[in-house]
Amino acid sequence: MIIPRSHPRYLSLKTREQLVRANRSGIVVPEGLIAHGRGEAFDYILGERTRPSAEKAIEAAAALLLTAEKPVISVNGNTAALVPRELVRLARAVGGDVEVNLFHRGGDREKRIARTLRRSGASRVLGVGKEASGRIPGLESMRRKIDPSGIGDADVVFVPLEDGDRASALRRMGKKVIAVDLNPLSRTSRSANVTIVDNVTRALPLLNRQVRGLKRYNKRRLVRIVSGFNNEKNLIMAVKEIMSYLNKWNGV
Ligand code: ATP
Ligand code: MG
């Protein structure tokens, strides 16, 4: 389908098209399409813009990634379809790795995602096939698989579009978790250390820019940014941003 640039919903339609295509090529599962729909609904009531709460979370996320001993960037089907280059760029900028981390494993989807990441510039992709021999304690089946030399050994994990259960299981493993989730009320949002309430398509380029900007800061300054961030308060701010956007319709 060709979407005219002049269409008022051009970006949203282009994103849908990207996901549909990635679904056909075996990178995105049907559940991923549904999850995107839920995200779109929240994006609509955010006004489809990066709000100040997200900017604040992006700054904290960049500082946390830059102070990490071993950061890992977790990649699922949707994010591989939407922002593969940005994910690879982020991993390189913070001295970490990308790891394929899927809620629905099976078939050769993980290999396809790894191929997409390599085509996007990754020289090494963790979490594929036998490499994903580690386990997240407290989770059942395929959902618990991780790479022992990746997420298994990481101190900070960047998990855009993660599931709430797994995000809290990673926290219980003692890891610092950074999530990107348009739903400020989700269990994922509430269980992460830093939640960026924004669309991954907008948040990733901004996060990369922020990482470049903060790179020249010394460690003390970065640590101060991280410790000055309060995720609970920031989520309340995100909800308030939604309310004040919706308030424009009040009395119409
Ligand atoms: P919980 O965290 O409460 O367990 P969930 O796992 O049930 O939530 P799902 O619908 O399975 O939620 O996961 C999809 C999540 O990802 C949704 O909260 C949705 O808002 C978010 N999401 C989907 N697409 C995007 C996107 N492009 N950018 C940011 N967030 C997105
Ligand atoms: Mg869930």
Question: Would you kindly provide a written description of the structure presented here, covering whatever features stand out?
Answer:
- It is a single chain.
- With 252 residues, the protein is an alpha/beta fold.
- It is 51% helix and 11% strand.
- The chain has 11 helices and 8 strands.
- The strands form 2 sheets. The protein has a 6-stranded parallel sheet, sandwiched between helices. A two-stranded antiparallel sheet has the order 4-5.
- Helix 3 crosses helix 10, helix 3 runs antiparallel to helix 11 and helix 5 (84-93) packs parallel to helix 9.
- The longest helix is centred in the first third of the chain and has 16 residues, at 30-45.
- The mean pLDDT is 95.
- Adenosine-5'-triphosphate is lined by residues 35-36, 38-39, 42, 161, 163-164, 180-183, 186-188, 199-200.
